[in-house]
Specification:
Blueprint lengths: L6 H9 L5 H13 L1 H19 L10 H8 L20 H4 L2 H4 L12 E3 L2 E5 L8 E7 L8 E3 L3 E7 L1 E4 L2 E4 L3 E4 L8 E2 L5 E7 L3 E3 L4 H4 L6
Protein name: ChrR family anti-sigma-E factor
């Protein structure tokens, strides 16, 4: 990611297929959970289609139609995620949107979680140099250590909610932070908060104790 992208810029880039895999995963997860974002995404796709209509026709490979048909069975990144019924005893894993579940080896308990205080994180394996993709779980009422960013961070709220100096964010929200943001996200008292986080550079702790721990801590 270059500069400080807005959510709409990310949606447009995703519609054009121009995002690195970790960023595309965050945007696809956001789309699966947020109806308003899907509406805007559909508009960007329509604009892209209008632009393509102005281009001269290109010669296609002989098997292009067959390859297109073979892809129609896969779930599109902008499609709404089928949600379990409210009265189902669905686990958090089954409430995760399909784009994200496809990157998990199984239930969340099978991941390798690293815990510090009231925060736990599990790194996902995406082979894209320069990016780190993690699931972050913050216990109810607990905080992520105060920090800023040496690059960009995308956070999608999967369960629960958290707040920081800029506002409150709940399931489906996509939150963007960069070096201009120095914050301490705190999970709501009502329950744990689970997020998907994608960074393109390390975080830097800024609290009084954090400044001394920076050389030893990787977040």
């Amino acid at each position: 990611m270059s500069g400080h992208p807005s959510v709409d810029e990310l949606l447009m880039a995703h519609a054009a297929g121009r995002l690195p895999e970790p960023v595309a995963l965050a945007v696809a997860t956001h789309l699966a959970l947020c109806p308003a974002a899907r509406s805007r995404y559909a508009a960007y796709e329509a604009l892209g289609g209008m632009f393509l209509e102005t281009l001269p026709p290109a010669t296609l490979a002989e098997d292009a139609w067959e390859r297109l048909l073979s892809r129609l069975d896969t779930t599109g990144a902008g499609e709404p995620e089928e949600q379990p019924r409210r009265d189902d005893p669905a686990t958090t894993y089954h409430r995760l949107p399909r784009p994200l579940r496809d990157y998990l080896p199984g239930p969340l308990e099978t991941l390798r979680w690293r815990r510090y205080g009231g925060v736990a994180e599990a790194e996902l394996t995406l082979r894209t140099p320069g990016y780190r993709t993690t699931l972050v779980r913050v216990r109810a009422g607990r905080a992520v250590p105060q920090h800023t960013h040496e690059g960009n961070e995308l956070t999608v709220v999967l369960e629960g909610a958290f707040h920081d100096e800029r506002g409150r964010y709940q399931r489906g929200d996509l939150v963007i932070a960069d070096g201009s943001v120095d914050h301490m996200p705190v999970a709501d008292e009502s329950g744990d908060c689970l997020c998907l986080a994608v960074t393109d550079a390390p975080l830097r702790l800024t609290g009084m104790l954090g400044r001394f721990l920076n050389p030893f801590v990787r977040i």
